[in-house]
């Protein structure tokens, strides 16, 4: 009787562990989710930096490496530009559409729809492809 109870408990615990891993996705899924979270955070910092340096009288930089100073994001920006994507090390994509409009993009490892829901500023996000997430920025032009 005790042997049967021990076997049932072991099967129950083993089943709970396997079921939990199936629901959560395991360590690989957690790593990919952490990388996507870092990518989204990096894009937010890049977007904030570009909005800051995008003074109404000053056009946006041609590339992300153009030296422009924004006191609130300077340190973080250089870390992001130096390290790039957390998994591949590839630089983030920056597209300058005009003196006032831009987007910064990355390729996500997991579902971009879930990432979009996780991002707080949904009005500034575009999903051009299934695995691509872009933060969009457009500065207001000052009237002088």
- Kindly report the spatial arrangement of strands forming the biggest sheet: 1-2-4-3
Rg of Cα set: 22 Å
Query: What's the total number of strands?
Result: 4
Q: What class, by secondary structure content?
A: alpha+beta
What's the helical proportion of residues?
40-55%
Biggest beta sheet summary: 4 strands, antiparallel
Which ranges are low-confidence, i.e. pLDDT below 50, for 5 or more consecutive residues? none
Note the beta-strand portion. 15-25%
Shape, principal axes of CA atoms: elongated
Mean pLDDT across all residues, rounded? 78
Order of helices and strands: HHHEEHEE
Distance between the termini: 88 Å
In DSSP terms, counting alpha (H) and pi (I) runs of 4 or more, how many helices? 4
Q: Please give the domain count.
A: 1
Condensed summary:
The chain has 144 residues and is an alpha+beta fold.
Describe this structure in words.
The chain is of the alpha+beta class. The chain has one domain (30-138). Helices cover 47% and strands 16% of the residues. It contains 4 helices and 4 strands; from the N terminus they run αααββαββ. A 4-stranded antiparallel sheet has the order 1-2-4-3. A hairpin with a 2-residue loop joins strand 3 (125-129) and strand 4. Helix 1 packs parallel to helix 2 and helix 2 packs across helix 3 (74-83). It is elongated, with a radius of gyration of 22 Å. The model has no long low-confidence stretch (mean pLDDT 78).
Secondary-structure blueprint of this entry?
Elements: H1 2-24, H2 26-53, H3 74-83, E1 93-96, E2 101-107, H4 112-118, E3 125-129, E4 132-138
Antiparallel strand pairs: 1-2, 2-4, 3-4
Helix pairs in contact: 1-2, 2-3
